[in-house]
Design a protein that fits this description.
mainly alpha, 2 domains
C-alpha cells in the first residue's frame, strides 16, 4: 500500500483515506496549502513524465500531446484537445 499523502485527490473525492478522521485531516491540509480552491481537481501530472516530455519538446502543445499519447492525462483531460483545456492551464504550461 502506498503512503497516504495530502493532496487534491482526497479533497475532490478521487481517493479514499484510511479513516474519516484521516480524511478530514488531509482535506484541512489541502485547504490551508491552497491559495484558491477550484471547482474541479487540477491537473497533476507526475513530475517524471512531465520533465521527460519537456526534454523531448519544449512547446507546451507538443508536451500535452506527448502526455496524452502516453496515457499520463486524467480521464477528464484525455478527451480534450490542447485548445480545449482553457487559458489558465495553457498559461501554467507556458511557465514550465
Amino acid at each position: 500500500m502506498y503512503p497516504v499523502r495530502p493532496g487534491g485527490a482526497h479533497y475532490y473525492g478521487k481517493e479514499e483515506a484510511a479513516s474519516d478522521k484521516e480524511e478530514e485531516k488531509l482535506k484541512k491540509i489541502y485547504e490551508v496549502s491552497q491559495i484558491k480552491i477550484g471547482d474541479e481537481m487540477p491537473f497533476q501530472p507526475s513530475y517524471r513524465s512531465l520533465t521527460v516530455a519537456y526534454q523531448i519538446n519544449q512547446d507546451p502543445e507538443m508536451v500535452y500531446g506527448i502526455l496524452k499519447r502516453n496515457s499520463q492525462l486524467s480521464e477528464e483531460m484525455e478527451v480534450r484537445s490542447y485548445d480545449e483545456i482553457g487559458d489558465t492551464a495553457r498559461k501554467r504550461s507556458n511557465n514550465v
